[in-house]
């Protein structure tokens, strides 16, 4: 096997096995720090040994075994004899029993641990992206639009709080789930978004491993809470977005905008399932939450056979509904994109310009401005906005798309 093949195998193992390795270590050792560091050491060992020894037949098993040894070595180094005995007892004693109605999935346990309400919501998301998604601190910092040092400190404090508070590593009981699920959904939404438009400069522009994992875990939560509208809404949103994945990046590695995508390449089964979930929630007659509205917006987009058939008035009406429950600047920005199709780019630009102080560090804000200015014939201003968007964008496919659009201005 060539060096390139080995590197590819290691990358694939990291994408597919990181969460499993960390979850297995958390289950055994009950410590996120030990789990994360031992997993990282195991992957570092793979980088050293696999080129010479070859890729093992079961990479996940090899990594888990190696990580377990690394964790035990660390415990032995850091603790005195009495503490060693306590740690040994911890390692081999029977586990705390799960609630009788809990789903037996180690990664789901890990998510609920990372999403405990004792932690701030942004901290839960960041910790889960690191521990479950395997994203690096710089990647997570870009997702949150904060400095790397700030994000690193946030994750470190979160792990320390889990340890100090003895937060259990398990899925909550059925009666506790409704109060815990909103934080988990926020986490899964961020994990999915990072996979669908990956921010890492050295990663694929679309990370199917993350989108697939987010969908898998959302399905598990829906099995736990089949009547929860927001769980169904998030699943529908993910499915309708994932259905367009193969059409989103061109053969040359450039992002393909929604209006330019080959709709025949969309996954018809995922679209049908997403539409069915949206219809079920509409039939329930209950006021929709954020994810249900976003799913409905995507259902309108995916119902149109051609971009010219898109019902923009319905999309704007849905955004108006969303703004009432989520008046964030990003929602306002997305609404403005729809308004541009309904009322023209000049009306939309007036809204977008009012968001400058809130979204100046967000690449999509500048990309939206650039497109609106281009449509208004203000080429020099559009070029400047594209330059800013390109400087801030972390996704390689999106950067290629923005660069081409800028260069077309002449």
TrEMBL record:
Chain ranges of the RNA polymerase sigma-70 region domain: 20-79
Organism: Asanoa iriomotensis
Domain of life, per lineage: Bacteria
SUPFAM superfamilies referenced in this protein's UniProt entry, alphabetically: Sigma2 domain of RNA polymerase sigma factors, Sigma3 and sigma4 domains of RNA polymerase sigma factors, TPR-like
RNA polymerase sigma factor 70 region 4 type domain sequence ranges: 111-161
Domain DUF6596, residue spans: 180-280
The entry's keywords: Sigma factor, Transcription, Transcription regulation
Keyword Phosphoprotein: no
Protein name in UniProt: RNA polymerase subunit sigma-24
Family: Belongs to the sigma-70 factor family. ECF subfamily.
Keyword Transmembrane in record: no
InterPro entries attached to this UniProt entry: DUF6596 (IPR046531), RNA_pol_sigma70_r2 (IPR007627), RNA_pol_sigma70_r4_t2 (IPR013249), RNA_pol_sigma_r2 (IPR013325), RNA_pol_sigma_r3/r4-like (IPR013324), TPR-like_helical_dom_sf (IPR011990), WH-like_DNA-bd_sf (IPR036388)
């Amino acid at each position: 096997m060539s060096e390139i093949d080995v590197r590819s195998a290691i990358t694939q193992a990291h994408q597919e096995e990181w969460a499993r390795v960390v979850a297995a270590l958390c289950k055994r050792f009950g410590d996120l720090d030990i789990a994360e560091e031992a997993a990282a050491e195991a992957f570092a060992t793979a980088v050293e040994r696999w080129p010479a020894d070859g890729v093992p037949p079961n990479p996940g098993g090899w990594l888990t075994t190696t990580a377990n040894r690394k964790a035990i070595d660390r415990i032995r180094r850091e603790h005195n004899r009495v503490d060693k005995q306590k740690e040994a007892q911890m390692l081999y004693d029977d586990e705390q029993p799960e609630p009788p109605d809990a789903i037996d999935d180690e990664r789901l346990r890990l998510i609920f641990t990372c999403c405990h309400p004792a932690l701030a919501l942004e901290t839960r998301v960041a910790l889960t992206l690191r521990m479950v998604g395997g994203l690096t601190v710089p990647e997570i910092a870009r997702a949150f639009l904060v400095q790397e040092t700030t994000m690193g400190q946030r994750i470190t404090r979160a792990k320390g709080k889990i340890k100090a508070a003895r937060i259990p590593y398990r899925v909550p009981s059925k009666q506790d789930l409704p109060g815990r699920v909103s934080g988990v959904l926020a986490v899964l939404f961020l994990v999915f978004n990072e996979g669908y438009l990956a921010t890492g400069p050295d990663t694929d522009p679309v990370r199917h491993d993350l989108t697939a994992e987010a969908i898998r875990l959302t399905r598990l939560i829906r099995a736990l809470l089949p009547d929860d509208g927001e769980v169904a809404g998030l699943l529908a949103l993910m499915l309708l977005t994932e259905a367009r994945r193969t059409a989103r990046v061109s053969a040359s590695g450039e992002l393909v905008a929604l209006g330019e995508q080959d709709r025949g390449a969309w996954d018809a089964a995922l679209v049908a399932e997403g539409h069915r979930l949206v219809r079920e929630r509409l039939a329930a007659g209950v006021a929709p939450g954020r994810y249900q509205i976003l799913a409905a917006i995507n259902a309108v987009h995916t119902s149109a056979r051609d971009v010219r058939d898109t019902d923009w008035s319905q999309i704007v009406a849905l955004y108006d509904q969303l703004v009432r429950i989520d008046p964030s600047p990003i929602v306002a920005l997305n609404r403005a994109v729809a308004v541009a199709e309904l009322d023209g780019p000049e009306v939309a630009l007036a809204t977008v310009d009012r968001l400058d102080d809130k979204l100046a560090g967000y690449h999509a804000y500048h990309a939206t401005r650039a497109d609106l200015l281009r449509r208004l014939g203000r080429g020099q201003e559009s070029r400047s906005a594209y330059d800013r968007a390109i400087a801030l964008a972390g996704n390689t496919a999106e950067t290629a798309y923005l660069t081409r659009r800028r260069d077309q201005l002449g």
